[in-house]
Design brief:
Layout lengths: L6 H32 L1 H4 L4 H8 L3 E7 L6 H11 L1 H11 L6 E5 L5 H17 L2 E5 L3 E6 L3 H33 L6 E11 L9 E9 L2 E7 L6 H11 L6 E6 L13 E4 H15 L5
Parallel strand pairs: 7-8, 8-9
Antiparallel strand pairs: 1-5, 2-4, 3-4, 5-6, 6-7
Length: 289
Amino acid sequence: MDTVISTAAIEKLAFACDVLQEQIDARVAARDAKILEADPFCKARKTQLLAKYVGALGFRILDYKSKEKPSPEASAAKLVFRIKDRAVPIFKDLAKKDNRESVVDFGDFGPDEKSTLVQLCEAFKGFGWISVERSRTELKIKRGGKSQAIQFWNGGWAEIVNRSIIESALQAFAKEQKLKGHKLSYDIFYDVKLVRLASEKDSPDMQLDVVARVGDRFYVFETKTGVLGIDKWVDRAKLFSRDQKSRFITCCIDEKIPTQWFRPFCLVPLGRLEAEMSKWLAGDCGVMS
């Protein structure tokens, strides 16, 4: 025999569920507040605002890097960026497990492209990543055995360039504001590793390429040289812009990609990033414009 549940009984159950959920939410909030209160990143002056920002999103900082020291790889990354349409296909192909040699024909190379590629190969040779034979018409490139070369060729170079552009744009904007009599408070964090607040594990749940703090706003940057991963991108964009002030920006290397297709999510080619950042900063920090 079927039991008929009255509307009143259903309403009582729904009310009980709401009460229980409120109690759960209150206890979770109290637990999270206690975790953040004891968090060393919340106490440190440099990371205090960042720790509170990610804490409100349900995460805590596991690790991060501050300002990076110049490296030989940074110069090589800029060379890749200068001739990315030529260099990226060559070295991405060379990074494949079953491909250890590449022959580059100079037939349709312009003088600057040829010169830059030769400089780049000499840099990689100096790192011990490749051996190279050069003639007037071609380059024969053989991959070495160093694993950091694979990471660099598969997108590490773009992350280095991205960091350099972000730092340059912020420095330029801060200098401009200083000339107008305004002091801009900003900071940059690299390779930010986050873990869920209540987690006790030592491995990150999320890793962010670059996070820039400008006043009380945060700009979270991710670098993509391959597949965008739309679902993950949308989730992160919603998460990091939840305060209605901060931005999540995905940077790509394709200058021709129709970025308007992805609005309201922010996709910016590296070649246009500095100009776009200047616009955001001027708009977001309008009181200092």
